[in-house]
Amino acid sequence: MLLSDRPALNLQLEKKKYREEQYLDLYQKGEEIPLVNSGLWQVYQGVVQLNRFNQSQGEVVIGWVTPNHVFGSTVNNNSAYCAIAMTDVYVRHYQPKEIIRNPQLARQLLSELSYRLVKSEQMVAITSLRKVEDRLLGLLTMLKGEMGHPVAKGTRLTARFTHQNIADAICTTRVTVTRVFGDLQNKGLLEFDSDRHLIIKF
Amino acid sequence: MLLSDRPALNLQLEKKKYREEQYLDLYQKGEEIPLVNSGLWQVYQGVVQLNRFNQSQGEVVIGWVTPNHVFGSTVNNNSAYCAIAMTDVYVRHYQPKEIIRNPQLARQLLSELSYRLVKSEQMVAITSLRKVEDRLLGLLTMLKGEMGHPVAKGTRLTARFTHQNIADAICTTRVTVTRVFGDLQNKGLLEFDSDRHLIIKF
Questions:
Q1: Which of B57, B76, B109 sits opposite A110 (nearest CB)?
Q2: What does UniProt give as the signal peptide span (chains A, B) (predicted)?
Q3: Domain spanning A132-200 has what CATH number?
Q4: Is the ipTM of this complex over 0.90?
Q5: So where are chain A's domains?
Q6: Closest to B65 measured CA to CA, from B137, B101, B119
Q7: Which residues does chain B have within 8 Å of residue A170's beta carbon, measured at their own beta carbons?
Q8: Are B42 and B70 in contact (CB under 8 A)?
Q9: Which helix (H) or strand (E) holds B57?
Q10: Which DSSP category does B37 fall into?
Q11: pLDDT per residue over A141-169, tens digit each?
């Protein structure tokens, strides 16, 4: 059964069954998901952060992947690329030959890759903005759409972002993110809840 | 027949036949390829530049697509997105239902989308670099791999880039690109040929 055929509400029992059948791998918050093989990974639950290594700067964040969506590549084993569990996550790995054998799976993954490409292109457009304030607002707007859930005060992001996570994604320093977050909080556009999750109010 | 099943060397006669059979659309250098429908476009010949519109900054370049590779989306009609022929180009449009009906096509396009995603993620990593010199070197290295052909003096890019094209892609000004290009030329790392095509010598 394909992951996206599944109902949106996933029961604990089903997860257990999935784990037992070894379809799903669990990674705990902060763990690196080893991308030793090529292929695609589909997120079943949680949020995965994708980083790329740059010689001159170390790791930069290139995106986040939320439930049902995919990451990875069928074309090569991209060694400059690394995936970190931002929360506890369940992921399913599809090998290239498994995808080739199964047309229904290929079509589903085609849609998912297409979605991921749209998101990646959105990230290129955000990181290309000259002003750090514009990049930050662009990023928060994207994250709101990606992993925001309505709460009384606004839209809460399901994963917890540090100022450093945000800085690594929009090519600035942690200090600058802290300053711009402060400005947004003063304007009533942003707030942190008791779990230090962002609540976006615009 | 799928485009990538074709031999690399495309004869003029075949192109004519293809145009007559209305598989391929020709766009002249500088023309916008209208992305009125969703679906994927495969480049048969030439180079396509992809731009995205940002409210605060106008258009930013998000990538380039070279022969056999694809652009577009099966998931939505992305209105913030525009494709410009950087050279005369032939492209083939695949509608989502055409892709769904044809498993072989779906698998081929899955690989191509995967390749395009790798390139897009590479662009995110490049645009995320803090120093403009690093962004420019990263971009030239990527373009060399994408559309470089060996010549006596180094590697020549098949499409002609203006300083503005480059500036729009790496989030800087035309003036800065001109300055950094000057530095690279002085160091013997870069040169323009008589057609003003870049020759990369590193």
A1: B109
A2: none
A3: 1.10.10.10
A4: no
A5: 15-127, 132-200
A6: B119
A7: 128
A8: yes
A9: none
A10: S
A11: 999 999 999 999 999 999 999 999 899 88
